[in-house]
Each structure stands twice: as structure tokens, then as C-alpha cells.
Write a structure and sequence with these properties.
10% helix, binds 2-acetamido-2-deoxy-beta-D-glucopyranose, Neuraminidase, mainly beta, 6 helices
Length: 403
């Protein structure tokens, strides 16, 4: 055998056995640096600190812990990484600081505080964006602390540069606002698209106008035939609507294609941002053909998070039921034979909950084994929370998505 064949064989074996993504961070449980009130288990209960979202900027890796139980000291955090990966149980650092993340006594409202964050995002204008749902989703006891709000933080100074309350006529409360997608072509005229999985709506925020409006469409609803899940040996049925928006690169007309899908669905849909950005179009009685069905991704491909790499036109899809990240070149027809698996691991990639691409063309994926937490119990000796990272081209090498 020639050396090249041997090397290819080894490479193929490696990529089959180990997948294409590199294990980057893993936690058995989440701990914090400089924790106030150490030893107070009502302030910090390690078991309930479940990460839901991530974003990357320079030497900051953001990790968001949605407040779905008492005992979560800080919702928005960065993680300090020193040495070389994989990083094991690194402590979180409250961001921008402890004061802004600590709840008021008696959960009193306070617009200067961050209540609960799911999936933050970094834009190309050095800003961190996130929705604070304003809600404490405690079991059998949902506490609406304050209106949901959209935040922007300048990452060069760590200073809050914008905060916008989402009014009640747009959404009754913030519980369904689990992600935000930033349209950052123009740093001074930025738009944010926020899916509302509870109310089957898509919110559009214009930072420049300081206005928000709401699109309704039947494509935002789950498909009742595609809401059954079997994850980590646990079976359940969910009915979550529109969950994730992924933007194509900007087209010659100055607008992008916004891909979206409900969580309980195998289908992908699109709408042009030219439509979304136009507030007067939102209230039409019919949207005609402006919202389009793109195709089916394949059986059991429910996904809470997806993103398009603007250099390769490849979409990455976190498939929660398949314990997998898949890829699809958006220039091709959407069907399973035009897709590929980038990474699948039935013991370490269970329930990929968030996926994001940074400005250095790296893909980041977070899995948190959520059904085990909701319907059973975590094994606290296991690594329940994993982050993968890989350069986009390396992640796609050998897949059908680059061809
Ligand atoms: C899953 O990940 C574990 C830990 O990294 C690894 O040992 C195992 O080979 C992986 N399984 C597959 C099918 O890639
Ligand atoms: C919004 O759409 C309407 C109807 O097509 C159009 O008349 C109007 O110019 C659009 N507004 C903007 C800001 O593009
Ligand atoms: C991993 O789980 C998926 C979904 O249940 C299954 O289709 C696949 O065959 C499994 N892979 C391995 C290596 O067990």
C-alpha cells in the first residue's frame, strides 16, 4: 500500500470513529468563579445549572444558563479557558458582572438586571445580543419578573449599549423567546429576528427605529406528525413552534434569505428579509407566496438550532433526536441525499441544544442532555454538557456539502 492510501485509510477510520468535530469543553456540572454566598444552596444549586446557549468572541466563550429552577446564580456568563482543550469543568464567570445577573430580593423587577437568557449571539460589529425572557420558569411556578427585553453589549468595552422592552401587544410574556438572529449588514441599521415558539410568531426588531413588529404564519406551527421524540432512551411529545432562524449571505438586492423551522417539524421554510424588515407588510391578511416551503430534512431531524456559513453557503443543523450535526449546501435541493452527517455520537452529543458560527469560521456546538434532566435525572459523574468546536472547512471535509 502506498503511504497516501495508508494515510487516507487512517484518516477515514479516524473520521468515522471520532467524527469531525473536536471535543472542546465538557462539564459534569457547572461551577462559578468568585461565587457570592458560597454554601447557600438556594443561591447556587449545582445540579440545576443547565447550559442552553453559547457564542464566541475573541477569548470569550459565552455560556447562557436559562433560569428554569431556583439556584441559578448567573444567567449570562463567559468561560475562562487556559491551557489546551479539551477543557474539563472550567468555571463560569458572570458577565458582564455579578450584580447584573443576581436577582433582586423577592424577584422584584429591575430593568438593570438580566433574568434569564437562552441563546446569545455575537454580530460582526463587536456586539453581543440576547433576549432576556424576563421569566423564571420554575417547575409549576412560572414567575414573570418583568417584560422580555432585547439587549446589546459592546464587546470592546463590555458596556450595555441598548436595551429594549418587548411590549405586551407583541408577546404576552417572554417564555417562548429562546433565540435571536442578527442581521448585521449595516452596524447602524441592524435588525434582529426573534422566533417565539410558544405563540408561533416571528418578531422583527429594528434597532435603528427602536420598533418591533410581529409576523404570524401557519408555517410557524409544529407538524403534529413530527412532534414525537426518542432521545437518550426517553420518549416524549412536544409541540414547540418556530425555533431557529438562519440567514443566508446578502444577495445583490441587499437582502438575505431567512431560513426557519418549527422545532416539532422535519421541514425547512424561507422568507426574504425584504419582507420581514417591512413593518407594514406584517399585518397583511395574507402573505401570498412570500413564505416558502423549501423541503424535508429527513425523518427524526427535529432541530432547535441551525446556522449558515456565509463563505461556503453550507447550513449546519443541530439534530436533537439524532444526536448529530448535519450539513446541507443551500444551493442544492433540500433532501436527505443532499445532506451529510458532520458529527454523531450517541453517548457524548446527546441533545445538541445550540449551534453557532463565529467570525473566524469556526463552528461551535453545545449539547446538554436536556430530556434526562426534564424526565429523569442526570448522572452527576458523567459529562452531561459538551461543547464541540471545529474549523468549518475541516468539519466539512469529505462531505457532500462542499461539493
Ligand atoms: C463518541 O465519543 C466518545 C468519547 O469521545 C468516543 O470514545 C467514541 O468513539 C465516540 N463514538 C463514535 C461512534 O464516534
Ligand atoms: C413596504 O411594502 C410596501 C408594499 O409593498 C411598499 O409600498 C413600501 O415601500 C415598503 N416599505 C419599505 C420601507 O420598503
Ligand atoms: C445513534 O443513534 C441514532 C438515532 O437513534 C441511530 O440512528 C444510529 O444508528 C446510532 N448510531 C450508533 C453508532 O449507534
Amino acid at each position: 500500500m502506498s503511504l497516501i492510501v495508508k494515510v487516507c485509510l487512517i484518516f477515514l477510520l479516524c473520521s468515522v470513529v471520532n467524527g469531525k468535530l473536536t471535543e472542546y469543553v465538557k462539564w459534569q456540572s457547572i461551577n462559578y468563579k468568585n461565587l457570592p454566598y458560597p454554601g447557600d444552596s438556594s443561591f447556587y444549586n449545582p445540579y440545576v445549572n443547565v447550559p442552553f446557549g453559547l457564542a464566541h468572541y475573541g477569548n470569550k466563550l459565552f455560556v447562557a444558563i436559562a433560569r428554569r429552577n431556583p439556584g441559578i446564580p448567573s444567567s449570562l456568563n463567559v468561560v475562562e479557558l487556559t491551557g489546551s482543550p479539551p477543557y474539563i469543568n472550567p468555571p463560569l464567570i458572570s458577565y458582564p458582572n455579578w450584580n447584573m445577573n443576581m436577582l433582586n430580593l423577592g424577584n422584584q423587577p429591575n430593568p438593570a438586571k438580566i433574568v434569564s437568557v437562552y441563546r446569545p449571539r455575537v454580530d460582526r460589529c463587536d456586539r453581543l445580543w440576547f433576549v432576556d425572557t424576563g421569566v423564571l420558569e420554575y417547575p409549576n411556578n412560572q414567575i414573570n419578573v418583568q417584560r422580555p427585553s432585547i439587549w446589546a453589549i459592546d464587546l470592546k468595552t463590555d458596556i450595555v449599549i441598548g436595551r429594549f422592552d418587548i411590549p405586551e401587544n407583541i408577546v404576552p410574556n417572554g417564555r417562548g423567546l429562546a433565540s435571536i438572529t442578527i442581521d448585521d449588514d449595516d452596524c447602524a441599521n441592524t435588525f434582529a429576528y426573534i422566533p417565539d415558539w410558544m405563540n408561533n410568531a416571528l418578531l422583527v426588531f429594528s434597532a435603528q427605529q427602536g420598533r418591533i413588529w410581529r409576523y404570524n404564519h401557519n408555517y410557524f406551527f409544529f407538524n403534529p406528525f413530527e412532534g414525537d421524540f426518542d432521545v437518550d432512551g426517553l420518549q416524549f411529545q412536544w409541540n414547540d413552534g418556530i425555533f431557529s432562524v438562519a440567514l443566508s449571505k446578502t444577495k445583490p438586492n441587499g437582502y438575505r434569505t431567512a431560513f426557519f423551522h418549527p422545532l416539532g417539524s422535519f421541514s425547512e421554510f424561507t422568507v426574504s428579509t425584504e419582507i420581514l424588515r417591512n413593518e407594514t407588510l406584517a399585518t397583511r391578511r395574507t402573505h401570498g407566496k412570500d413564505f416558502k416551503f423549501v423541503g424535508h430534512r429527513g425523518t427524526n431531524t427535529q432541530s432547535g438550532s441551525h446556522a449558515v456559513d456565509l463563505n461556503t453557503n453550507v447550513m449546519f443543523i443541530a439534530e436533537m433526536q439524532n444526536n448529530a450535526v448535519s450539513c446541507w449546501n443551500i444551493k442544492k435541493d433540500l433532501k436527505r441525499t443532499n445532506m451529510d452527517i458532520v458529527e454523531q455520537n450517541n453517548s457524548t452529543l446527546i441533545y445538541p441544544v445550540d449551534l453557532t458560527i463565529d467570525r473566524e469560521s469556526s463552528l461551535y456546538v453545545l449539547s446538554n442532555r436536556l430530556p434526562r434532566f426534564i424526565y429523569d435525572r442526570y448522572d452527576t459523574n458523567a459529562y452531561n454538557f459538551n461543547i464541540w468546536r471545529e474549523n468549518i472547512n475541516a468539519a466539512l471535509s469529505g462531505t457532500t456539502c462542499l461539493k
